[in-house]
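User: Thanks for the earlier help. One more: Gamma-glutamyltranspeptidase / glutathione hydrolase. Can you show the sequence and predicted structure together?

Assistant: Of course, both are below.
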Amino acid sequence: MQAFDYLNYPYPSQRMTAVANRGMVATSQPLASQAGLEMLKKGGNAIDAAIATAAALTVVEPTSNGIGGDAFALVWTKGKLHGLNSSGPAPEKISIDKVKERGYDSMPKFGWLPVTVPGVPAAWAALSERFGRLPLTEVLQPAIDYAADGYPISPVLGKFWRSAYNKFKQVLTDEEFKHWFETFAPSGRPPEIGEVWKSPGHADTLRSIAKTNAESFYRGELADKIAAFSQSGQGFLAKSDLEGYKPEWVHPISVPYRGYDVWEIPPNGQGLIALMALNTLTGYTFDEKETVDTYHKQLEAMKLAFTDGKQFITEKEHMTHQVEDLLSEAYAEQRRALIGEAALTPEPGNPPKGGTVYLATADQEGNMVSFIQSNYMGFGSGLVVPGTGIALQNRGHDFSLDPAHENALAGGKRTYHTIIPGFLTKDGRAVGPFGVMGGYMQPQGHLQVIMNTVDFHLNPQAALDAPRWQWIEGKKIIVEPHFPTHIAEGLVRKGHQIQVELEKGAFGRGQAIWRDPETGTLYGGTESRTDGSIAAF
């Protein structure tokens, strides 16, 4: 791994890079980080720490994820990278025609129609069974304690909670949504910053998942409760959908980038977009970060990759273009040739035929985990299974109701998925896990963190703190308030429509842990845009 200047902080930061050698957990909530660290100190490995942290996050950051969401993981162990896709499909009995019969021309955001099979509990169980060292009952105990005993609301969490409550109060007026308010606004309001919130039903659910290795969620008492709630609301999710679900172990995909390999989960995830953009950018040399030309090429490559991704990415079996074709050098050259001096309006190419939480963990033995889970759009569908704390995701919102679209809704099909874990290796050895959560910001954040690291030699904290941009559509780009003004003005002259966005949440929240292969020392960066924390020893 190249040498970074760990004292060089070119951007405003609240933190220095964390350094340790026995174990590290990086996530968006201090209490969750401590849950992971507790497992490491008990003799667990990075996988146990990741599961404990993820479970705790469903309690201490319910504004971004929950038991009823999906998850993906990249696990480095014994010199090999493993991928887990634990995203759930649409219910077998749903269809485009049935959705349209209910008066919709596009998939709604809330209610039963966008609910897909949750994959989070299955991810925890699969990771624990294959790679974990401690029993799941012990690994989930910190999360159970937080849910049963309560914890004080942190500042950024409180802000997002109140924002969600204010929105839901206006739009979730049907009887089926009352359980969300009973669970997350039990006093008729969202909890205040510093106020203790607890969820006994959530604790009971976690105990059941822990004791049965998630069997109760898919084939037992919790499955019965989910199915009964769905039936009462005329939902399509049935117990048979839960019974038939299994997470999928997958081969991660990668591209070489300036002596490193950048890894993502294959479709249905959107990690392919980050790889396509990086593949396009390998054709250029970037000597300086803060130049108009550097940002212009980054933006153009991302616009092209994202437009392709939205057109072509869905469940792998339904894709007309193979991953290998989209990542081919020939296609990268074809897309690179479109990048000129002026901002373009992107269109899909013609390849050759052939809210969310992110966490990173590492242990003393060399195991490292890149893990992400989400309910989508904050709290998800607005539906909470009565008495359980299970907030159901609305991932099906991304399906198209156009039968000709590659991501067209179909029963039993998995949709285009926004949540993506990343991993970096060099010469066959792990550098480490990284990720930036936040909807369509995620592949854009991956590209920026990797280029900050590889091209511009920033340490992990500085790589995360650097001003971010996000392509929205057409030529519209949003940037953070501390984005360099002279760069923004130069991009405007090239035809980009630059808008300063004051909301920090628009630019995602990231974590990264890099390991020095020679010394084993761990270097961690966490997100200064939220309540991020690194626990290490």
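User: Great, one quick takeaway?

Assistant: Residues 442 and 537 are 29 Å apart (CA to CA).
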